[in-house]
Give the backbone structure.
Amino acid sequence: MTKMMITGASGKLGTALLGLFPNSLHPTHKELELSNREAVFNYITEQRPSIIVHTAALTGVRECEEDKLKAWKSNVLGTESLVDACLKHNKQVYFAYVSTACVFDGHRGFYTEEDIPNPENFYALTKLLGEFVAKKLPNYLVVRTNFVAKEKWRFPKAFVDRFGTYLFAEDVAQGIKDVIQAKLTGVVHVCGDKKLSMFELARLTSCDVQPMTLNEYNGPRLTIDMTLDAVRWKKYKVSGYK
């Protein structure tokens, strides 16, 4: 019997995945603190999931830059605890680790699964390190993607000169489900079929959002061109884009 576990199920992607896998184990942050190594080992020993989709992460670029220890504990050590617990008690688990297009430097775009990562900031570095941790398991899947929730844009403005092959969370959730059902392992890009600026993406849900350029930005280094190409899997249409 297949038993799936979703981490980060209260997040946008986790919520979308839970809609597709409603019978999954989905411990809350309060129920399972991934930075508590002993608790993670106990949970994996007791539940022994056959599939884990690991979406839980600290994703704010600025927050990760300003609190590197918090980012390290969440994105690297939390992943390590999960993987090590599986290696000890559940080695044949199918472990799907959700990574990011930001593992690449963003200097040219349309990165394939075969391109060499080169992170621009600490957030991206922690996610890349998480990929290497996941690869300790024999049946690992690294899903690189770039998504937002299909809801009103959180900010008054959006960049016209920062790009991605964006999807909405529900699109990525479907992509992950498809890849899992195909039983792919290794690194897979789940991406959209169009290059969009953040402004174009934001306008899909918020017609009042205003344009801005990177010249107006003051903060940590960003991955400018986050576009992905996929040589191992199909591309998806971003829902709502005509």
User: Anything to note?
Assistant: The chain has one domain: 4-226. The first strand starts at residue 4 and ends at 7. Residues 2 and 189 are 24 Å apart (CA to CA).
